[in-house]
Amino acid sequence: MSPPLLKLGAVLSTMAMISNWMSQTLPSLVGLNTTRITASDTLTQISPKEGWQVYSSAQDPDGRCICTVVAPEQNLCSRDAKSRQLRQLLEKVQNMSQSIEVLNLRTQRDFQYVLKMETQMKGLKAKFRQIEDDRKTLMTKHFQELKEKMDELLPLIPVLEQYKTDAKLITQFKEEIRNLSTVLTGIQEEIGAYDYEELHQRVVNLETRLRDCMKKLTCGKLMKITGPITVKISGTRFGAWMTDPLASEKNNRVWYMDSYTNNKIVREYKSIADFVSGAESRTYNLPFKWAGTNHVVYNGSLYFNKYQSNIIIKYSFDTGRVLAQRSLEYAGFHNVYPYTWGGFSDIDLMADEIGLWAVYATNQNAGNIVISQLNQDTLEVLQSWSTGYPKRSAGESFMICGTLYVTNSHLTGAKVYYSYSTKTSTYEYTDIPFHNQYFHISMLDYNARDRALYAWNNGHQVLFNVTLFHIIKTEDDT
C-alpha cells in the first residue's frame, strides 16, 4: 500500500479506537449504564471502595499516555455524604473534561489531515474525470492505475462524513461538560455556604445554651485544692498580695503589702508580669498602719483593719482618700483572737461571689468564729452568723460562694477541716488537703474572678487552684 494509503489506514484505526472509547466509556462516566469494562478493554474501571479508579486513558498530541485516576472513597461521616458525593461528581466531570480535551486535540490534528486528504481526493476525482473524458489519449496502463487508486479511496468518503459528525459531537460534549462543571461548582459553593451558616448558627445556639446554663449555676462547693504555683519570692515571712475580683479583664493590677504591722506602704503593679519582674507602677502611703495580713481589694478600694483597733478602713486607690471607716462591734483585736500563727490576725476581711465579708471572734461567742456580711460602701454589718469553731484554732480561712472554709493549721500538713454555709446556717467537717510547700502560711484568700487562692507562704507569693462542684438550679429554686 502506498504511503498516503498507510496514513489513511492509521486514520481509520484512530477513528475506530475513538468510536470504541466513546461507545463504551462515555456512557459509564456520565452514569448512562453500569456495564463493567473487562480487563481486555482499553479502560479499566474499579469500584471506588476497592481501590483507585481509572476513568480515561488517551494520548496527548505528542503521543504520551494520559491517564485520569481518582482516589478511592474514604470513610465519611453521614452528615457530609451529599456534599462529598457532589464533590466526587464534580471530580468525575472534571476528569471527563480533561480526557475529552486530549481527545479533541487528537481529533483536530487528525481532522486537519483528513481535510487535506479530502482536498486531494476531490482533486484526484476531478482529474480522473478529465482523464476519463480524454482516456483515448492516455495509455491504458496509467488509466488502470488511477482507476485502482480511486476505487481504494472511495470507501473513505462516508468515513470522512462520519468523522465530521464525531468531531461535532465531541465539540458538543465539551460545551455540555463545561456548562455542567460550572453548575456543579456553583451548587458546591452554595452548599458550602449553607453548611457554614448552619455551623455558625449551631455555634451561636450552643453559646446561648451555655450562657443560660452558667446563669443556672449555683455557687460551687469546694472539692479540691491543687498547686501551689510559685509566682515570686519576696518580702518578709508575713505579708499579703492580691488582685481585684471585680476588675475588668484588662485590669490585672496587683497590690503588695509586706509585713503584718508597722507599715503603711502599698505597692502597685500593672500586671502579674510586672509584679514578677519588680516593675512597680505606683505606691500608696496609707493614713493608718494596718494590723495583720488579712486585707482585701474589692471594686477599686482597699479594706484593712486599722492597727490596734477593731476599726475597718475603706481606702480608695483612685482618690487616695479614706471613703469609710467603722468599728466592728465586739470584735477582738491586737492578738486577742488571732489565727494560730498570731500576727494581729484577729480580723480577716475577704470577698467572694456574693460580696464583702469580715471573719473574727467575740467574747459573746466564746472566742468562736463570727461571720459578718458587710455593706461595701458604708461597712455596715448586714447580717452575722455565729459558728462553733474556735478562732485561735484556725490556721487561716476564706469564703467561696457564701461558705466559710477553715484550715486547721498554718504549718505543714494543714488541710481544710471545717466549713460553714451562710445560706443554710449549717456546718460540716471536711478533709481537703493542700500542699503547704514552704511550711508557713500567713495569708490565704479566694479570688472569685481567678477562681484561685492567693497565699503568702513564708516569703513566697503563691497561687492555689480550686475545684468547685456546681449544682444546676431548678425552676423550683428561689
From TrEMBL:
<keyword id="KW-0770">Synapse</keyword>
<protein>
    <submittedName>
        <fullName>NOE3 protein</fullName>
    </submittedName>
</protein>
<keyword id="KW-1015">Disulfide bond</keyword>
<feature type="coiled-coil region">
    <location>
        <begin position="170"/>
        <end position="216"/>
    </location>
</feature>
<feature type="coiled-coil region">
    <location>
        <begin position="79"/>
        <end position="141"/>
    </location>
</feature>
<dbReference type="InterPro" id="IPR050605">
    <property type="entry name" value="Olfactomedin-like_domain"/>
</dbReference>
<keyword id="KW-0732">Signal</keyword>
<dbReference type="GO" id="GO:0045202">
    <property type="term" value="C:synapse"/>
</dbReference>
<dbReference type="InterPro" id="IPR022082">
    <property type="entry name" value="Noelin_dom"/>
</dbReference>
<dbReference type="GO" id="GO:0005615">
    <property type="term" value="C:extracellular space"/>
</dbReference>
<dbReference type="InterPro" id="IPR011044">
    <property type="entry name" value="Quino_amine_DH_bsu"/>
</dbReference>
<keyword id="KW-0964">Secreted</keyword>
<dbReference type="Pfam" id="PF12308">
    <property type="entry name" value="Noelin-1"/>
</dbReference>
<dbReference type="InterPro" id="IPR003112">
    <property type="entry name" value="Olfac-like_dom"/>
</dbReference>
<keyword id="KW-0175">Coiled coil</keyword>
<feature type="disulfide bond">
    <location>
        <begin position="219"/>
        <end position="401"/>
    </location>
</feature>
<keyword id="KW-0325">Glycoprotein</keyword>
<dbReference type="GO" id="GO:0007165">
    <property type="term" value="P:signal transduction"/>
</dbReference>
<feature type="domain" description="Olfactomedin-like">
    <location>
        <begin position="218"/>
        <end position="470"/>
    </location>
</feature>
<dbReference type="Pfam" id="PF02191">
    <property type="entry name" value="OLF"/>
</dbReference>
